[in-house]
Amino acid sequence: MTILKTSVAKKIAMALSGLFLVMFIFIHLAINLTLIYPGKEAFDAAVEFMATNPFIQLMQPVLFLGFIFHIAMGIYLEWTNRSKRPVNYVNNNSGVASSWASRNMIWTGLFVLLFLAVHFANYFIPFKTQQIHDHYALVTGLFKNPIYTLLYVLAFVALGIHLSHGFQSAFQSLGAPREKCNKALVLCGNIIAFVVAFGFSAIAIYFYFN
Ligand code: HEM
Questions:
Q1: pLDDT tens-digit profile of 65-109?
Q2: Is residue 106 in contact with ligand 1, taking CB distance under 6 Å?
Q3: I need a labelling partner for 2 at 20 to 30 A (CA). Which of 8, 43, 86, 140 fits?
Q4: Residue to mutate, 76, 81, 162, 167, ligand 1, most ligand atoms under 8 Å from C-beta
Q5: For residue 171, how far is its CA from the centre of ligand 1 (angstroms)?
Q6: Is 112 in the pocket of ligand 1 (CB under 6 A)?
């Protein structure tokens, strides 16, 4: 019973960390959209605000810890689920009812993680260590690199797939009644997944060609 309680607590913590990251990703998307409209001045001002606002500065380590927690817990849950599962999903009937996205959360997550490492090296580290004021030039310049843009688009498609299952799964972990909420949660999850995948990818592709 204690073990059950612990694993439920882990699922809830995983759900909360996932939803926290969803919130962050939407703020990030809103800021990135200013690259296209209204444009350079608005984007630079938004980045400057994020870099200097005391509340945002306070939230930065929380976000970092949220990522670390989500990734570590995701890997841990996958590891323990695999060791408990007698047969691989492919040969197992449970695979029939589950979606591809739900069976591959770890792989879409790890792909996003790979992109995060590249993003850190190309953007976050220069941003933190150098006196960069033209953020617009730094970001849009990166999109001129076809390999970076391809990785970027693939990573956000992977994140979209991750969220197409993750969003509804998080609410189910938090106890949303299956019969009442399932359809609405699936629909919301799919819309969120599409907006994230399409929104970030469209910005990258726009600057690749313009
Ligand atoms: C911005 C990035 C990310 C967002 C917005 C996100 C969001 C989510 C959400 C909402 C869930 C559902 C939680 C639940 O089932 O209760 C989830 C689950 C999961 N995430 Fe992420 N995630 C992100 C990155 C990652 C990364 C980098 C990994 C790397 C390993 C990862 C691995 C997982 C795994 C394995 C699960 C399934 C856990 C389970 O139900 O057993 N995620 N994610």
A1: 999 999 999 999 999 989 987 655 444 444 456 899 999 999 999
A2: yes
A3: 86
A4: 162
A5: 13
A6: yes
State whether the beta carbon of 75 lies less than 6 angstroms from ligand 1.
yes
- What distance in angstroms lies between residue 38's CA and the mean position of ligand 1's atoms? 32
How far apart (Å, rounded) are the C-alpha atoms in residues 120 and 180?
Answer: 41
- Positive or negative torsion for Cα 43, 50, 74, 72: positive
The string of pLDDT tens digits covering residues 101-131 is: 999 999 999 999 999 999 999 988 888 888 7
Q: Is the CB of 19 under 6 A from ligand 1?
A: yes
Top-level CATH class of 2-209? mainly alpha
Find, among 123, 113, 117, the residue nearest to 70 by Cα. Answer: 113
Please give the pLDDT value at position 155: 98
